[in-house]
Amino acid sequence: MTTGRKLRVAQVITRFNGGGGRVALNGALALPDGTYERAIVTGGVGMDSEPSAGRGTVLHGEEAVANAAAGDLTPDAHRAGMEVVQVGPLVPQISPRDDFAALSTLTRVLAEGRYDVVHTHSSKAGVIGRLAAARAGVPRIVHTWHGFPFHEFQSWARRTAYIRLERIAAKHTDAFLGVGTDTVTTALRLGLATPERVRLSWPAVDVDAYATAPGSRAQARRRLDLPLGVKVVGSVGRLTFQKGPEIFVKALARLPEDVFGLWVGGGPMADDLAKLTARLGVGDRMRWLGHSDDVAAVLPAFDLMAMASRWEGLPCALVEAISAGIPLVATAVPSNQDLVLAGETGLLVPPEDPERFAGAIAAMLDDPAAAERMAERARGRVGDWFSPAHLGTVLDETYRGTSRRPYQRS
Description:
Blueprint: E1 7-13, H1 18-29, E2 36-43, E3 58-60, H2 61-66, H3 74-79, E4 83-87, H4 96-113, E5 117-121, H5 123-135, E6 140-145, H6 156-170, E7 175-179, H7 181-189, E8 198-201, H8 207-210, H9 216-223, E9 231-236, H10 245-252, E10 259-264, H11 270-280, E11 286-290, H12 295-298, E12 304-307, H13 316-323, E13 328-331, E14 347-349, H14 354-366, H15 368-381, H16 388-399
Parallel strand pairs: 1-2, 1-5, 2-4, 5-6, 6-7, 7-8, 9-10, 9-12, 10-11, 12-13, 13-14
Antiparallel strand pairs: 3-4
Helix pairs in contact: 1-16, 4-5, 5-6, 10-11, 10-14
């Protein structure tokens, strides 16, 4: 691709929220000024939200902003001066009718946009977006693996089907970014990418925004109206099976009465979790806070961040907690170990094990000096590589790179 000229780049993502959405937005914002025209092409509203427009529609600008789901980052992108497009049939859940409509509609949107680069994120947009970009004749196609849609908690048939879809999409991809070392090594082991087409990437977080200021702990606890003297264990993530919120609350039920639980994030499991919390008898010390647009204001209330995920790429929440100086307990799943080194920068526990999860939490709370030492070492691992500025440099080099996909329309 010719260097030295302004490039039109579209970021394509199914659900423009959470860690993946924030990384996509931060990366786009960090691209060198004056050298890119930036667009966000996002999916329609998922089944756990309330759409105000039909799934077959394509919305632009203010209309896309007005139809964005709660917590969606489309308004942020629009305020930053980016083109924003919402493709109605591109929804998170598997739906053959919607998926074929999304491929057709997205192909048209990308062709009309005359983009030089299409950069896809997430599993659904990653497959459909790359196929659509290839059909639209986009010169350069880039994909970020924030994690994989296949994992050990699936049936063999489902896992195999997802791997096959990734291999099909990989044939139409010029370059890959893999968030976390395990993501990259898994991709290479499975033959999803050749070495010259893949590059390690990290979550892009504005570290300074999460650095705690004097008094912020007390202020955060007052805002949340937390009882005096409690030890607060918190987590951040969508209320989904992947994130293991039911494991978190089952662990809390095994901890002493002076341990209080907080969870930041909404999602489809909210009602079931409220019932489980009541059944476990911890309703007076477990609070599901729902979505927050200002996680940085909530984190200082935590004495400990406890991530119960069944699988991950490398969650932004870990970087945010480390930046805020909060000790970590996390499940031993890819790629948490990039940041949580067992006994050095935090504690790792097996997934789906509330008893061991509770034991690790108790160990950290009972030894605050050791927890603080681990938190300090963790801060040493979050350097410039995790900044939006570094990601902007990586993207600029990747977008103007020379690697080529196996199948490319002449």
